Amino acid sequence: MHDLPQGFDLAAAQAGFRYRDRPDLALVFSRVPARAAGVFTTNTFQAAPVQVARANLEGSDLIQALLVNAGQANACTGVDGLADCRKSIEMLAGLLDISAGSILPASTGVIGVRMPMSCWEISLPGLVENLGKCTGEQAATAIMTTDTFPKTASREIELEGGRVRFWGMTKGAGMICPDMATMLAFVLTDTEINGPEWQAMLRQAAEQSFNAITVDGDTSTNDCVLALANGASAVGCRTRDDWNMAGKALYEVCRELAYQIVKDAEGGTKVMHIRVTGAANSLDARKAARAVGNSSLVKTAMFGTDPNWGRIVAALGRSGAGFDPANVRLSLAGREIFCNGGPVDMDVDEVFAPLLKSRDIRVDIDLGSGDGEYFLMASDLTPEYIRINSDYRS
Amino acid sequence: MHDLPQGFDLAAAQAGFRYRDRPDLALVFSRVPARAAGVFTTNTFQAAPVQVARANLEGSDLIQALLVNAGQANACTGVDGLADCRKSIEMLAGLLDISAGSILPASTGVIGVRMPMSCWEISLPGLVENLGKCTGEQAATAIMTTDTFPKTASREIELEGGRVRFWGMTKGAGMICPDMATMLAFVLTDTEINGPEWQAMLRQAAEQSFNAITVDGDTSTNDCVLALANGASAVGCRTRDDWNMAGKALYEVCRELAYQIVKDAEGGTKVMHIRVTGAANSLDARKAARAVGNSSLVKTAMFGTDPNWGRIVAALGRSGAGFDPANVRLSLAGREIFCNGGPVDMDVDEVFAPLLKSRDIRVDIDLGSGDGEYFLMASDLTPEYIRINSDYRS
User: Fold this and answer.
1) Is there a catalytic annotation at residue A182?
2) A182 to chain B: closest CA residue
3) A306 in contact with B at a CB cutoff of 8 Å?
4) What stretches of A264-391 show up as alpha helix (H) in DSSP?
5) Is some CB atom of chain B closer than 8 A to the CB atom of A382?
6) What is the per-residue pLDDT across B263-272, written as a single tens digit (0 to 9) for each?
7) A174 phi/psi in degrees, rounded to 5
8) Using one digit for the tens of pLDDT, what is the confidence trace for A254-299?
9) Listing from the earlier edge strand, what are the strands of the sheet with A329-332?
10) Band of the pLDDT at B44, cuts 50, 70, 90?
11) Are residues B194 and B286 in contact, defined by beta-carbon separation less than 8 angstroms?
12) Contact between residue A197 and residue A240 where contact means Cβ atoms under 8 Å apart
């Protein structure tokens, strides 16, 4: 708890929506109304909690609580699912004596199943009672689904006016390919900051962190990143340096959380750090990086610690990015392996066998066509991913 | 051999480019120069044989031989690989006493490895000697890589002027997601037909067959469909009915070959027949079908015979196709499972358990927004796919 920003309390409880033997419900409470910012999934099917959170945020950016459950997504549950979601935050509002409009709900889990109201009725009073007795680690554990470890990150920075903290937690391991926002992540700060600036900072940080990772190319119906700034430190951003530092701290927290998602990718054993430079423009760089990071053939080669650069090059060639094949340079784990349209002369197997054993593998691609850049973190593809996702209704 | 069109001879040989214990080289020879048509990969990196075949076809559409090897792709091998390819067809031209420009080469296999000229020197004389002693099945076997069965298809039709035959063979099981043409396929006919018409017929047939399948979303550097019409039946297309029948026969041969590729998908156990209707336009229909067919989560659910429709709906939602979620209807294996924004009321597990046991599964999606349609065949994703592709340098 020591690294939580001031003025925030956490709680966790066992509601039994799907899991029977572990906490599956978390609450974030700000003692005073906080400025809230949010970025949401671009999936056309938006889960009930996404719809309610968006509506509440549009109503007012002063938010006091985040209510998060794991195991059921409450997505594609029609008007009934929407009513269920509204009822649950009304119940919580009564217990906390705040307005339902100042609560943002978020859910992950199986799509298309309604959540029994009795679970809410039984668990919410205990959840509220638990407030302040729960660590960041425990709250991050309560929002896990197929995750294998809880994911948190924090930064403390010194602004002109004094010290402020940023803290975040996230969950996510499968159905990960944010096109705008992805998965669930929650970031808290005690910095004094107003709504529009906070929203802009969050959007930028999310774009370069959560939106720049992929596990399986699937964008979920429930993805969202919610951020609360409650001003409890009484310290705001005064100078340009302050703004830069705060923006950097937020970005670093988001980036660290995003990395943890890829590290915990379902069945994953590797994290590819794919950097594309020299693209005609940033959109082409993004296309190239995503074609490589989402290629099942590149992913399985990485799992097999096989320096099969031909698959990377083939993915670039079908990416839709424009470039001259003769100008492309590719480095794997820091060693150049392809240039001038052909392989670099060396004993590929001997050179790369030790390098590809690490969990983190750099893939540096220079398209030799301009200044466009993009950076993407991607997992590998393993039999364990198949096992997890072909298990009936995982 | 009985179903080959007239005037064509086949041959196979063991060249040892990669495989040691099986034929890996096939030759198609037309006794008279045939009108040739071809569609080629849209991958920016084009393999040496693709470059040579394109150039030869541009030089003249009168072609007499197809030379096809398996095991090495001769892709991304630079100017040396290109010279190797040219030398191999010059050798064959000498043995057959035809011009090198009337031979189209094609290769599949590992990217980035040069093919030793000694293998060509040793194997080509025997290959030419074998001409006419090889069945369609044997030739189709010689071009296989990770394929588990040879793939051929044929049609015999009665035109105004008499009987003509269409015969084709193909290979392909991984790196399959044609964006224009895909994998290797060869179609022969003894119909009398001229170049531009033959090319137009092939392009249309390929678009609705080979270009409408996916195994893993990866488009290869070597994909091509080559078609020869040698006129040996002395029967041409005279009436509109003749043209329609010939076009249909060509399409059916291509479609049957394309289906066999998906059936033989690396590690595959299912073929999803994904039909999207009611899209705003055909591009949106294509986007929606491809998002579903390439989703690792949908593919693993199919492998697990799990009617997890939420994953199909989530894939539609991120596809980029425009539609109103409330109007979407989804049927699985012929039974409606999702409409009006929520699940159809039934015991999903009981209803679908028997239906999802079949190899072929229909996925019918109505986006309720217009007349756009698209049909895609897609494989599932299994541990065996991972095993095949994470095996060192498969």
Assistant:
1) yes
2) B318
3) yes
4) 282-293, 296-303, 309-317, 348-355, 383-390
5) yes
6) 888 888 999 9
7) -135, 170
8) 888 888 888 888 888 999 999 999 999 999 999 999 899 988 889 9
9) A213-214, A372-379, A271-279, A360-366, A329-332, A335-339, A342-343
10) confident
11) no
12) no
